[in-house]
Amino acid sequence: MRGLIIAAPSSGAGKTTVTLALLRLLSQRGVAVRGAKSGPDYIDPRFHEAACGAPCPNLDAWAMGLARLRSLAVGAFAGEGMLIIEGAMGLFDGAPPEGRGAVADLARLMDLPVVLVVDAGRMAGSVAPLVAGFAGFDGAVHVAGVILNNVGSDRHEVMLRRALAPLGLPVLAALRRDAALAQPSRHLGLRQAGEHPALEAFLDHAAASLGESLDVDALLALAAPLPAPCKAPRMRPPAQRIAVARDVAFAFAYPHMLDDWRAQGAEVAPFSPLADGPVPDADFVYLPGGYPELYASELARNTRFLSSLRDTKAEIYGECGGYMVLGTGLTDADGQRHEMAGLLSLETSFAERKLHLGYRQLTPLGGPLGGPFTGPMMGHEFHYATTLEAKGAALWQARDAEGTALPDMGLRAGRISGSFAHVIDTAS
Q1: Where are the alpha helices (DSSP H) in 127-195?
Q2: Cα(284)–Cα(238) distance, integer angstroms
Q3: Distance (Å, rounded) from C-alpha 216 to C-alpha 163?
Q4: Which of 11, 24, 211, 302 could be disulfide-bonded to 51 (CB atoms 3.0-4.6 Å)?
Q5: Which residues of the chain are under the pLDDT cut of 50?
Q6: C-beta separation of 347 from 328 below 8 A
């Protein structure tokens, strides 16, 4: 079992496109390959899975301990295999104050080489000092090769390769500028894999484009052995039978948490609020985050779902989008208010967007949450919703990545609770 990391000097360099192309291309060539994604991300892992047909875990060096990281990295591999880890942001960009959780942290912790994706669309000779700076910045982070992206022509490629030659780093591929490789986006990032209008064609095109210049043998030779697997602590299930909302409006549930619950004997029953599916018979209902604000009018009309949510005797927990659905009303970006479940005294709005972003250290303040949420948790917050009104007891005591105290988060009322925080793992 071997692996490598795809990183870049900054966001927007083309890491996702290159990673997807690699996963599809290697899969087409018979390599047992799967992807992983650095940091908190619900979107890219589903694209990874579509590209190669294998589960894609999140590897979060800020929120997860070493045992968890190694356990997820090895994952379902049986025998030989290749893991391609897609980084987030720039190689050394992490949480303040010291950059913890950066892709570079994963490279150090996992002892894996880095392939640097460089958007060379607006440079020629300047590519050399850029790559040299990243390669030499940290001796514990091994930049082993370069993939050039957004290359304009054969002549442009020659200039770039000539500039990089003195560095001694292999240029593994030069991906041409191609409008067909641009990904459609929305307010929280990429469109979800299930919503892509022609995903298979896109993945095949990306693989073919990269394959025109990729030195596959050289890339595979750079990969290093994955660390030996070790037993990692698991998050305990909150109940024996757990109903989990799952559709394009509620897609942001971390697979490793659901896998933890199943591994300890819990039954996870998915249902679709967007299809007006009723809440299954369960002891605990989990409404993950997602894009309910884009489907607020449909959800407000789905009386079978809303009635069953109000009528169930189970404990109910909502994260981010799920939390908003538990409130009394949600106002969309057009200023239209939609009635929600009314189980929490909460009004939220997207009419005036405000970004809330960052890692969160979470300590429960009480409420119905049991199982995985009885002690300190590591999580993150990423949304544009504005809270117009929130009445009731808070769910979490919160601190940011630097340990600075934040206002208490979320609400709890009897058996109902939720917040804008997404739980990633228990605090190690």
Answers
A1: 127-136, 154-164
A2: 7
A3: 22
A4: 24
A5: 186-189
A6: yes
Pairwise CA distance, residues 336 & 294, whole Å = 11
- Cα separation, 26 vs 82, in Å, equals 9
Q: Which two tokens stand for residue 190?
A: 């990429």
Establish whether 320 is a catalytic residue.
yes
In the chain the first and final C-alpha atoms are separated, in Å, by: 26
297-322 per-residue burial string, b: 16 or more CB within 10 A, e: under 16: ebbbebeebbebbeebebbbbbbbbb
pLDDT score of 366: 82
Collapsing DSSP to helix, strand or coil, 303 comes out as helix
- Determine if residue 286 is left, alpha or beta; phi over 0 gives left, psi from -120 to 50 gives alpha, anything else beta: beta
Burial of 281 (0-12, 13-18, 19+ CB in 10 A): exposed
Structure tokens given for 312: 């169930």
Alpha helices in 286-388 (DSSP H): 296-301, 303-311, 321-326
The one-letter code for the residue type at 144 is A
The full set of domains in the chain, from first to last, is: 2-225 (3.40.50.300), 241-426 (3.40.50.880)
Q: Which residue is associated with the tokens 């980084």?
A: 87
- The reported pLDDT for the residue numbered 227 is 86
* Amino acid found at 283: D
Q: What is the pLDDT of residue 188?
A: 42
> Which among 52, 56, 230, 320 is annotated as catalytic?
320
